[in-house]
Structure formats: C-alpha cells, structure tokens
Structure prediction request, 75 residues.
Amino acid sequence: MTGKVDETLSYEQARDELVEVVRRLEAGGTTLEESLALWERGEELAKVCRRWLEGARARLDAALAEEESEGEDTE
Prediction:
C-alpha cells in the first residue's frame, strides 16, 4: 500500500482507488500502521486526480480562449 503512485493511472483509476481507500479508512478495523499507509496512498491518489483535473481545466481554458480570439477575428 505504500510507495509512489503509478503516474500512468488514469483519472478514473486513481479516483476509484481513492474511493476504496476512503471506504477502508471509514470502516475502521485497521491497525495504526495500516491506517497511515492508507492515508498516505490516499494523498498520493488525490494528487494524481488533482493533476488530471488541472490539466483538463487548462485544456478547457485554452479552447475557450481560442474560441474567443476566433470570434474577435470575425467581427
């Protein structure tokens, strides 16, 4: 459960695993060491999700900016 998160995880894979990590933490019944490992894994998975979402936001912003500049050119 410890170690670096595979950077090739898709957003959906990272999100689904993060949901499972949260479920396990909320269920309890794990040792302190297991809980810490799960929490660390969750933090790494959240970073992967955040990077994907930031990338998507940048792509949307770029597309909108391009659309706006094309609209100004035609006026």
Remarks:
- Residues 11-73 form one domain.
- The mean pLDDT is 91.
